[in-house]
Amino acid sequence: MKKIQMVDLQGQYQHIKPQINEAFQSILDTAYYIGGPEVKGFQADLEKYLNVKHVIPCANGTDALQIAMMGLGLKPGDEVITVDFTFAATVEVIALLRLTPVLVDVDKATFNMDIDALKKAITPKTKAIVPVHLFGQCANMEAIMAVAKQHNLFVIEDNAQAIGADYTFSDGRKQKSGTMGNVGTTSFFPSKNLGCYGDGGAIFTNDDDLAHTIRGIVNHGMYKRYYHDVVGVNSRLDSLQAAVLQIKLPLLDGYCAARQKAAKFYSEGFADCSKIETPKISDFTTHVFHQYTLKTNNVNRNALHQHLLDKGIPNAIYYPVALHAQKAYADDRYDEADFKVTNDLCKTVLSLPMHTELEEEQQQFIIDTILEFCK
């Protein structure tokens, strides 16, 4: 059996090695490293894939979130609601812009934003909602958009973990994750379902005016060289990363299908174990399994985590500490009673190896090791 990897980027590279090497050599020969044809080509390809009018590439997923908020004109003191159970980047940019983060609990089945908690958190100062499509499936966007419309709020989708997922509205309409709010953002960090070989990100919107503003922000506020019309940042996707993404994008649906197949194998393997809760998929979304995250019942999660490591099985805890409990984001406004689900998840979740190169022999070994521990 091959060594088990949490994410096997080397194995994935071998399948596209000739295309990658040829693309890199071409860029090295032309020395067009910033804003080259690869960036423009990838942008157009992603617009077509997402069926969205505007894709604005940028340097990373965190910048994408920050630039989206800057583009919407949010001001210091404005309240932005997001979830307590996610990676810190989502709340980090809110704090960096001197906006006021408002954290809410998540649904215990899907780990995505709890709609009742969202409604409870809205105040006259609320200006935006940032749903996170965690681990690979969409939050309840139809409900979130209804709340946003009622209160005249912006919606910024954090789609760093769910690119490729499909959302189905109650009327049968389908949209890609990240394209339903006022603006969507994503990360192309190497381990993502659509990942490059460094940092990268993108912002997408159907709003022409917002897209224009964002295009200036990502390039020092310039639309014409050395003329700065808005306050901007330096956040550009380079040609090498765009080349990788342009090669991988046509393979994304296949990558997601491979992850879904691996997830099904895991879930069937744990079906008869009451001490393991496998991921629940909402009926309005597909799940592209950026992570395969299970929940332990009456099992010492930390001991299981270490046991797997001792057996040569990589695994991870996403996330061990709630955002409201992090030193950087602690606030007297928060009541522990409002974060029951998040606090429980931080003690019980465990993410298993998940990538396109997983073999059933490897998965069976992982399953058997966990079941043996849970006896």
Mean pLDDT value: 98
Number of domains: 2
How many individual β-strands?
14
CATH class of the largest domain, named: Alpha Beta
Per CATH, what is the topology of the largest domain?
Aspartate Aminotransferase, domain 2
Return residue spans where pLDDT drops below 50 for at least 5 consecutive residues: none
> CATH H-level name of the largest domain... which superfamily?
Type I PLP-dependent aspartate aminotransferase-like (Major domain)
Secondary structure: helix percent:
25-40%
Instruction: Briefly note the structural class of the backbone.
Output: alpha/beta
Radius of gyration: 21 Å
Structure description:
This protein is α/β, with parallel strands linked by helices and 375 residues long. The chain has 2 domains: 9-250, Type I PLP-dependent aspartate aminotransferase-like (Major domain) (Aspartate Aminotransferase, domain 2); 252-374, Aspartate Aminotransferase, domain 1 (Alpha-Beta Complex), CATH 3.90.1150. It is 39% helix and 15% strand. The protein contains 12 helices and 14 strands. The chain has helices at 9-30, 37-50, 61-71, 89-96, 115-121, 141-151, 208-217, 239-248, 252-269, 301-310, 340-348, 360-374, and strands at 54-58, 79-83, 100-104, 126-130, 154-158, 166-168, 174-176, 183-187, 201-205, 222-224, 227-228, 276-277, 292-296, 349-352. It has a 7-stranded mixed sheet, sandwiched between helices. A 3-stranded antiparallel sheet has the order 12-13-14. Helix 4 links the parallel strand 2 (79-83) and strand 3 (100-104). Helix 3 crosses helix 4 and helix 9 runs parallel beside helix 12 (360-374). The protein starts with 8 loop residues before the first helix and ends with a helix. The model has no long low-confidence stretch (mean pLDDT 98).
